[in-house]
Fold these 4 entries.
Entry 1:
Amino acid sequence: MILLNRSNHVFGIVNISMGGVSGTYVDPKVVFAVALKGNSSGIILTYNHPSG
């Protein structure tokens, strides 16, 4: 998750979940808690699916 300020500048990068071969789980409570505690104005969530 990438935390953004009002000017959309990155001020933090947080790894929310790291999965295995079968999948991963991201809890929305954790996502919003990190965003609120960091006083971020915006967030970017990214997902990388391994091929193969």
Entry 2:
Amino acid sequence: MRYLRTSFQIIRANLRTYAVLNAFMYGLFLIGMGAALVFPDLNAAQVASQQEDGTADLVAALLGNVWLFSLTIFAVNVLTVAVATILLPSMLVPFAGIVAFMYRAFNFGVTLAPVDETTARLLVPHSLTILIELQAYVLVTLAAYLLGRAWLRPKTVDARNRRQGYVRGLRQVGWVSLPALVLFVVGAVYEAVELIYIVPPLVTG
């Protein structure tokens, strides 16, 4: 908690930006859902893509081990989305990862849209997963914003030049990423438990 206190202080100091990012990302997710309901082919294309790239097969193979499944979900969320999609692009081009994740948030909504009765039932327990994991991504986008701001406007972090601002921005990335990691852990465990123990009765019921 001592380490998270610093993280929360940074978040509170940038509360307006944090609120705007929440509105954008959850809003884009809901817009994606709405688009898939109006145009069901969008959802069908996303589901087919997951089957073709092996995502569906990987999930099926891991359903027998809740902890291995949790670890895999955590690794995918952190490495392929938080790091590869949001943070790394933002380390090369200011704010690039935020734009990249906006597209991802929209696609998440398209993929998870309740296009039929079964999907609508599954969305009830899965809504908690969505809330937790999307919030973790919002925190990572906040970290990307703070890096970009410190890089372009070093005075906001009391830096003498952009190089020093970049370094101090990276420190802020580390602090804000801590609560995001906690949410990623919680979300991964809950999602694994949900898909293994909660979802099957809803599908067969």
Entry 3:
Amino acid sequence: MIYPGPMARTRLYRHGVLEAEGLPVREVARHLHDEGVVLWIDLCGPSQDELAGLADELGLHALAVEDALHAHERPKLHQYDTHLFLSAYAVRLDESTGRLEHSELSAFVTRRALVTVRDDDRFDMDLVVARWDESPDLAASGVGYLAHGLLDCVVDSHFEAVQALDEHIEHLEDQVFAERPNDVDLQRRALALRKSLVTLRRVVLPMREVVNGLMRRDHDLVDSRLMPYFQDVYDHVLRASEWTESLREMVATIRETQLNIQGNRLNLIMKKVTGWAAIIAVPTAVTGFYGQNVPYPGFGEAWGFWVSTAAMLLMSGGLYVTFKRRDWL
């Protein structure tokens, strides 16, 4: 039987106390049937043969193993005869581009073991280990304790991403109402944020079913001591979901506001241009009239020039004052 190589991480708890970590998977698997033992096995980029060998040892379903090896699975929780299989995504927002990066994580939850499977090391498993070490008094709750620490870190990444996106959107709102906004940059950033929110929504919304499914009584995974902690995670999932939906509406509103502001500015410019065109049309009309090749009053006389000049100034000035009073200029 092929076991995963040195890339695997392991922990062994006995009666709620951390007894060993970093043991080879082969040695850890031998304790599966020991009373009071809870195991954690983390596999980073395992081959199909390596995961199949461990699946035979733990009795994992072939469909669950297939899902763990194939990327881009939807966040979900499936129940099999001997174990639960969950798929989730941790996320991180790139502050420079506003794009959302995600890393997929699969987990097999058995009666005595939690097996996590990752395609790569983008998900920081050290955060999960640190979360477990922060609450060693809960280790007596068994595999549920390990599952809680894992989900807590995943959901925290969702919440942090939502908070970061909220700050980006607030900055975008300030730019919309700037005196001289960069419309091209605003459109680019709004589109990037909208794509990130769509991705985050696909990741966050299904987590309600995942966490709620783990809290079901028939799974016997969450005991009375862990229930408040899982409820807290579920509350964070709901808040992240609602926040994501509200941010999507905010981005759409910002885009509509930007278009309305652009339209208002264009109307203002057209109004001013039209007003000045009307003022300029007056001297053009007067000089055009007196430019006819026919005699007219004041033709060839100095007073005719001064009368026409005065008429142009008076009419142009009258239009300017009228337009100014009506805020057309």
Entry 4:
Amino acid sequence: MNDTASSTQSLLNDPEAGAAPPMVTTAQAAGKSPTRYSVLGAVSFVHVLNDMMQSVILAIYPLLKGEFNLSFFQIGAITLTFQLTASLLQPVVGMVTDRKSLPYSLPIGMCFTLSGLLLLSVAPSYPLLLLAVALIGCGSSVFHPESARVARMASGGRYGFAQSVFQIGGNLGQALGPLLAAGIVLKFGRSHVGWFGLAAVLGIIVLLQVSRWYSHHINERVRKRTHADHPPFPAPVVRRTIGVLMVLMFSKFFYLASISSYYEFYLMHRFGLSMASATRLLAVFLMAVAAGTLIGGPIGDRIGRKQVIWFSILGIAPFTLLLPHVGLTWTVGLSVVIGVVLASAFPAIIVYAQDMMPHRIGMISGMFYGLSFGLGGLGAAVLGVVADHFGIVFVYQVCAFLPLLGLLAVFLPNVHPPGHGA
């Protein structure tokens, strides 16, 4: 870990480190800064740590359910508490940092995550569990909008690529969390959640170096902001586009909530799998989500973001409709396809929204990342009530129709931001 941190520090201290001159010659000739691969790698690496720590919460749900005798609704309320804390604060953080740069807010936010993990490992009651996950949510509310801003600043104009690199870290972390939880927490007990605090400490160290780079490039950010005082598109077009993107986010994340929060219970109930086996299959699905995130941004840079959004959300409808009616092998296979295709939309959606309002990068990033958390939390709570009353299988039968909302992508305008790619 020390080697990783020192390597990251040396890269970030050199403003030219990590750049690939042959790939950025055109951008430099056009007056754009080169792609800062070291900075993108740093924020993506911390995203791995951040979301790995968060996904431990999901992975230990069966353990918490047994230890505290929780209902499915109470399980969903844990997710709701975490997601709402993050979602409500993220746009606020984004609006504040749009007006005043706070580069060192990143390591401060990670301190909230560290305190939440330590409390989660020892919390003796359900209310303190909720407080612990709320603290972890506060850490996310700072990390995501500001790190998304840093990724865009370091992109060298390759916005979709930068968002994919940043987001892949989160997806990998979400996939690693259940695996580590199965090997440590589910095996040795909830008190071992505290060991994940070491990842938070490492994240703080790396983010201190990212914040140093950010503080050295504040003038560059202010210069870009003065050239984007007004949105490049008419207000009605912006409002319609943002509204459609939000509906598509609802479709995507409500469906993801049905898998991330209840997939283990579904596999255990439907196919009689053990807790450990179900947790490993959840990790397989989350790895598929990571793969989809990695390819979505670069493809959007190349062929256009609308095409990626259209295909990724509406395109999974046949697979989601089939999922509740097949055996275990097909369930695992379909979940992989669904994860890859559905996740490819998120980088395209984020960059599409940022391109519509380039003068409000923090607010837009916070709003859409926050919306993803909030919809996931709301979906978990609502679906928990449905599962309590009608069974976990019924949840998947109903959620199978959500991707059909992808038809609304037809209302997205065919526009190309000035000076940008598709």
